[in-house]
Amino acid sequence: MKPASHGTTAAAFTRLLEMLQPDLLRFACWLARDRSVAEDVVQETLIRAWKSREELKDPAAARPWLFTIVRREHARLFERKRLPLVDIDSIEALGDPALATEGDAGLDDLRRAIMQLPDEYREPLVLQVLGGFTTAEIASQLQLTQAAVLTRLFRARNRLRTIYGLAPAEDVE
Amino acid sequence: MSAADCRHARLHIGAAPRELPAEIAQHLAGCAECSRFRDETLSLDARLRSALEVPLPRFRERAPPARRLALAASVVLALLVAGGAWLLNPKPALAGEIAEHVAEEAGSWDKQQVLSPADINAVLQQAGVRFDTSLPVVYAMACPFHGRHVPHFVVQTPDGPMTVMLLAHEKVSGRTEFSEQGFRGVLLPAGEGSVAVLTRNGAAPDEVAGKIVGAVHW
Predict the structure, then answer these.
(1) CATH number of the domain to which A66 belongs
(2) B170 Cβ neighbours under 8 A, 6+ residues apart
(3) Domain ranges (residues) in chain B
(4) What pLDDT score does B150 carry?
(5) Which residue of A145, B123, B151, B180 pairs with B140 in a disulfide if CB–CB is 3.0 to 4.6 A?
(6) Contact B176 A114 (CB under 8 A)
């Protein structure tokens, strides 16, 4: 079999994609706040990743590499289709699966609160907690300073602290 | 220690509690209030991770049929473009359902007491399965799954507890590795059915899964 890159055969690359696909879809869902859009984004991501697999030199870097592609594909789709902005009330009214009750009301409340965070807070938070990115990597992804990323992450968590039953911390300038 | 030090520490803790610079770690050693803030934030983060790991089967189940057909068509197209036969493999959905089921029985992981052969056999008989393993079984339940009773065990291994599900009626074409809801797992074909083995500590389940496959008879 032809190597896809250094030490990554096509079969190994396929296994990597299979393993990471659920988290890619979750990430896309949190970015798009719409599962249909998220599925489109992940399909585009998988196609693009397959075509560009030679670029992945180190299999250990597959996760951040694919998350980056998801982010770009989401932005591209948004730009190309001029998707309407998501209205959080309509998501709740439709009973979006991401907000579905699973018998853990606290978790559902937290999901709703994450969904309602402004994009500028939600995106770095999801990149960090779900994607495993460092603040420096997020800064590079979002083309922000690291200080700006720290502030956004702090404010995102601060909004969620009350949902979790904690007192909010003093805000930062 | 000044209020400004604490504000600076809390900005870092609130932003990136697992990525603290050395000076913040040093500050924490002498500041009980900021240490408590760090502990609270780490606890919030564990919950955040659970919240972000939305169970995927729900997303798939609720897609309208027309959309599923469109999706299937575009996946086939993607397959032709990419030349990767892996996209036809539907097993990630099964893996997601297994992980979701296991997540719902979270208490099963913490069992310590080894069950008697009689307890294990009662579960196996309910599902009509034979299973001869030397691994200590600490949890055994015949769980409803896809309309059938499926033996759900937790076994103790040198790599920690592992969950085993014996899926007599779920045929898989080949080995499928998955990572869902914080679990690492593998699905292996076993005769006319399959076996799923999951770990929650990141340990590789393959060796145990291979033994399980050799020990199960439908």
Answers:
(1) 1.10.1740
(2) B94, B146, B193, B194
(3) 3-52, 54-88, 90-217
(4) 87
(5) B123
(6) no
Q: Give the span between the Cα atoms of B19 and A142, in whole angstroms.
A: 19
User: Does residue A127 sit within a domain?
Assistant: yes
According to the CATH classification, is domain B90-217 in 2.30.29?
no
Report how far apart the first and last C-alpha atoms of chain A are (Å, whole number).
56
User: pLDDT for B83-136, tens place per residue?
Assistant: 444 443 434 578 888 888 888 777 888 888 888 888 888 888 878 888 887 889
Beta strands in B120-192 (DSSP E): 130-131, 137-145, 148-157, 160-167, 176-180, 183-190
DSSP state of B108: G
Q: Which of residues 149-188 of B touch A (CB under 8 A)?
A: 176-180
DSSP state of A48: H
Do the chains contact at A39 and B71, CB–CB below 8 Å? yes
The alpha carbon of residue B217 is apart from the nearest alpha carbon of chain A, in Å, by 28
* Whether residue A60 sits in one domain with residue A13: yes
B114–chain A Cβ distance below 8 A for any pair: no
Contact partners, residue B39, CB within 8 Å, separation at least 6: none
Q: What is the mean pLDDT of residues B10-16?
A: 94
Q: Is A39 on the interface with B (CB under 8 A)?
A: yes
Determine the structural domain holding residue A134 and report its residue range: 117-166
Structure confidence by residue, pLDDT tens digits, A64-112 = 899 999 999 998 887 765 555 555 444 443 345 444 545 567 788 888 8
Same structural domain, A74 and A24: yes
| 8 Å CB contact between A111 and A164 | no
Task: Read off the pLDDT of each residue in B149-164 and give the average, rounded to a whole number.
Answer: 90
Would you say A5 and A52 are in contact if contact means Cβ atoms under 8 Å apart? no
pLDDT (mean) for B141-152 = 81
CATH of the domain at A130: 1.10.10.10
Inter-chain CB proximity A150 and B12 less than 8 Å: yes
Cβ <8 Å between A23 and B179 = yes
Residue A43 contacts B where some CB pair is shorter than 8 Å = yes
pTM reported for the whole predicted model: 0.56
* Range from A112-116, B72-76, B171-175 carrying the lowest mean pLDDT: B72-76
A126 has a chain B CB within 8 A of its CB: yes
Q: Which residue of A has its CA nearest to B68?
A: A36
The predicted model gives B72-83 an average pLDDT of 50
Structure tokens at A126: 């999801």
